[in-house]
Amino acid sequence: MREEIVEEISDRTCGEALLLEPRDMFDACLVGMVHQFGRPPVACYSLNKVLAALMQDGATHEEAVEWFEFNMVGAWVGEFTPAFIETLEETGDGSER
Asked: 6, 4, 1, 29: which is closest to 18 by C-alpha?
C-alpha cells in the first residue's frame, strides 16, 4: 500500500516530490499530498506517525519532538518540501483513537 502512495505522489509531482530519509523508516508515515493555491502539490506525512518512528528508533518523546521541529518542520528545502498533518484521530503512537 505504501509503495502505491509513493508511486502516486511521484507520478503527480513528475518525480519532484521530496521524501523523508531514510525511506524505510518514514515511507510508512506518508498519508497523501497537500494542495495549496499557487504551489505545487507536496508529500504529506502524519506528524504522529513520524514521532512514533523516531521513538521506535530510540528517541524519547521529547527528543523526537525536538528532532522533528528542528530538522523536519524547520527545514525548508524548496517548493517541494514535505508537509506534516496532525490528525486528531491519531494518538501519539500513530494508532487510531
From this structure: 6
